[in-house]
Amino acid sequence: MINMKITKNITLMLLTCGLFFSSCDLDAPSQSAAEGSVVLSIEALAEGAVMGIHQSFGETNSYRGRYLPYYGINSDVEWINGINPTQLNDAGKYELATYAASPGNTQMNTDNNAWAKFYEGIERANKAIEGLRKYGKVDENPRMAQLLGEALTLRAVIYLDLVKAWGDVPARFEPITTETLYLPRTDRDVIYKQLLADLDEAEELVAWPNETDITSSTERVNKAFVKGLIARIALYAGGFSQRTDGVRRSTDPELSVDKMYTLAKDKTLEVIQKGSNTLGSFEQNFRLLCQDNVTAGRESLWEIPFSAGRGRVLFTLGVQHRAVDQYTAQNKGGTNGPLPYLFYDYDVEDLRRDVTCVPYEWSNANPSHQQLRSIDNWCFGKLRYEWMSRRVTSTNDDGINWQYMRLADIYLMAAEAINELEGSAAAAPYLKPILDRALPAAKVTAYMGQAAASKESFFNAIVDQRALEFAGESLRKADLIRWNLLKTKLDEAKLKMTQLISRVGPYADLPTKLYFKTADDKETLIIYGLNHGDSDEVGASLGYEGSTTWFDAGDLTPELINSLYQKNPDQNQYWPIWQTFIDSSNGQLTN
């Protein structure tokens, strides 16, 4: 595996050189300048400086343990498993997910959490960008140009995630000086425009996937990802979000719907037409991710790299293992899971369903076997210890990368943008490949006929398909916000769960029980009763080993359903800035 583990020695050299001094250490500027002229004029050291930005991604309370587990939860497809409706402020984690976070949140109100680490990464990027521009001779050296493009892109990634989580945030696009030590919030439109300008530069600097040895790995920034990131930012910038005067689109003419959707269309089509990446099968993408396969050119466009002893991706979003067993030495997984009705939103023949929604866990035994979980506590199945090619031995960290963008997103962004600009007929060819790998041909034809009937019906299809395609990948909350559908869809989710537990409406044809047995391999659970049209009569006649009441009102209670959100989501789309940073901002930051 071409992994960030290989940069450890380079990073240590840079730490020795002093490049990564604290962002608040403003002493000896002449020494810092000298270090920059040396480090960022030598390719191997400059690469270490750019890779060092990733250290801020992997810190304990950064992306690893705070942002990835909590941002995007709760939506209409994802939630934290095991919420106790009577203890929604327990350790602060539930209030982060249920739109009720306070500045003193116990998970986040520390000086080393995601907010701090994001700005640490930005400062490191700022120093690398400044130094590479001054000393890197990027006009003469394509590899140094690649590094500058990577630094610009990594900074854009961090800033986009800051804006997604906190809305308007301080804009720092130069290394900190005594004059800029304290900054107020900056309107997100200013930040969006800077990011788009930065990425316009970066896409000219970096190579396509597999065009160079550097871009042969999905852990390194490439041109396809940069173009995809431009498209994602454009759709956010042109969409709705909560502002001081309500939920609305930007009034900046540079960020108009027409301009932003045209930009998203152009960049996604450039990626598709280049053909540097291929879709493959839905399941294969996640198996490769679990196998640490970072070979570029497949569906994965870019991944946040975690070494084997970092990252809590499986811990948070994998199928749960209750004990040290034949697949892992880590009894984790299942922290977040799908809302219980999501499984039933898929067509019964949709190949994405059984990969995404898993009704079982692995038992507390070694060797272990699959056993049912309750209806309110399913696992996401895109990430599985049993798919890994190595054994996880860390207590909490599993080393699986975070797949930040994949080619399916490029197709669906293209379909959405083209539908907005040109209508459903022009957009249909970009939705169809996503359905072709998920459904039988006849069902694709029927679905596409209904979806392409109008611009509105096609938009609704995009909303639905992005849910089915990306559930468990933390894209949904930001999608719902930019469509101005956040509270609408969360209320719809609560209604669906209420109907599901009573088996009424679209769930009236489900049996009351599940019938199950263990397969001959002594591991795999065979289940009857999960599909629409299954019946208790047939289930009872199968002679399986066991059965269980599936729709137990004691599992999916009204209190649990209502805990999907505590406060109005449309008035609480963002987390507050944590109190520790308010207090240390010299009066510049407020909520």
What this model shows, in words?
It is a single chain. The protein is mainly alpha-helical and 591 residues long. The chain contains 23 helices and 13 strands. The chain has helices at 8-17, 29-39, 43-58, 60-70, 93-97, 114-135, 142-166, 188-205, 223-237, 257-274, 282-290, 313-317, 342-345, 353-356, 407-422, 424-436, 441-451, 455-470, 476-482, 486-502, 536-541, 558-562, 579-583, and strands at 78-80, 241-243, 246-248, 300-304, 336-338, 357-358, 360-362, 370-372, 379-380, 402-406, 513-518, 525-528, 546-549. Strands 12-11-13 form a three-stranded antiparallel sheet. A two-stranded antiparallel sheet has the order 1-5. Helix 4 (60-70) crosses helix 6 (114-135) and helix 16 (424-436) packs parallel to helix 18 (455-470). The longest helix is centred in the first third of the chain and has 25 residues, at 142-166. The relative contact order is 0.12. Mean pLDDT is 93; it is low at 1-31.
Q: Using DSSP, what is the number of strands?
A: 13
Shape: globular
Biggest sheet features: 3 strands, antiparallel
What gyration radius follows from the Cα positions, in whole Å?
Answer: 24 Å
> What's the average pLDDT?
93
The class by helix and strand makeup works out as: mainly alpha
